[in-house]
């Protein structure tokens, strides 16, 4: 999962810049911390916390005054409104909160997305990924141009600030509107979009003075063969640098993990946090049920999924995992409107509440796994926890599913399983894990066996002492197997020796 860290108001304003917002007052200065971007609706009680950038939607003029005062009491960092006034500026000053005026043509959803993108993020292991705005500025420095980063739907995710004159295409793109259609049509006719989607080639686009469009270079961003977006570099008042194309190619590879990270974040982070809080005991079932419209007294179950196979390119693997989580979310929501999906530690957890007592989840889980294999070309394993009587016991279902999935990862080829299906295999797998972690409770004579003798002994023990059956499995003559067994310094007539040997050999 990803957690937002702190950016200063100055950093946010520099990143967003004049095309979107203008600072009106900042009574606490520009170094105040911005921790999160929140939407404030005048029809709802203001839910604002310290360090928030509050976007006031649907309240203009004096109607925004109570929200500004509430943000000040909560020690928010800033409030953004569509129409500023002297009264609002005075209220913000008195409340000790910065006031931003949003350009009339800017869509709130677009501003929210860009503002959230400004905030630096880190991964679970503490690796700082940085933000796309900072990356766009770095690309601008290396290329000498004016940069924008877009997704595959041509939505602007981040852009560099610039003192140079920007052309009409860039201006309209930043404001969230489509560029000039004649120019976009020419790009399609020239095959520019096809080139950007098909590989890493840097594409050159000539200027079109009659449309107010300057020269550009662009490159596609990919994870393996999957397109993620595009980096566009507009030439400003000065020519692009000599190394611009080489820098742009490297930038595309660096940007890919950032875009995968954004895809990997669910549309509603709030719902993901609800599931994590429930499964770790940080939130009670009644509270979670109230948020998702479920009955906490009805049965529930947890299913856990994991992508298997060689990871290969890290970006490509992360993209597959993100797509897998999206696919699971769609299937789970279709099955139960109140389903919750969360990704953690490389696994995807699904909570299915409001189940019938005899709910059959295996078919749903198999359908998801089959769809993933067919459409995402990804090997997936899934473990279905038992259906528990109430939402309070969801953690029991989760723990059971994790036990099964752990065993499947170690030595089970099944794609979908429950504890009832593979209980013996799960128990043996967990015993073997204990043996692996505790060398002192192993017989050193068994550890010392060479691979041929170890394989022969395990086949003999699995065949319950039937030499001919074991020899057939090993494709050797029975006398050959008898000779090998005589070389082993163990009393194979002792059932306890056989038990320990069989466990240790399975561990190997």
UniProtKB/TrEMBL annotation:
Origin superkingdom: Bacteria
PucR C-terminal helix-turn-helix domain sequence ranges: 453-506
Residues covered by the CdaR GGDEF-like domain: 284-407
PANTHER family: CARBOHYDRATE DIACID REGULATOR, CONSERVED PROTEIN
Similarity annotation: Belongs to the CdaR family.
Protein name: Sugar diacid utilization regulator
Source organism: Lentzea albida
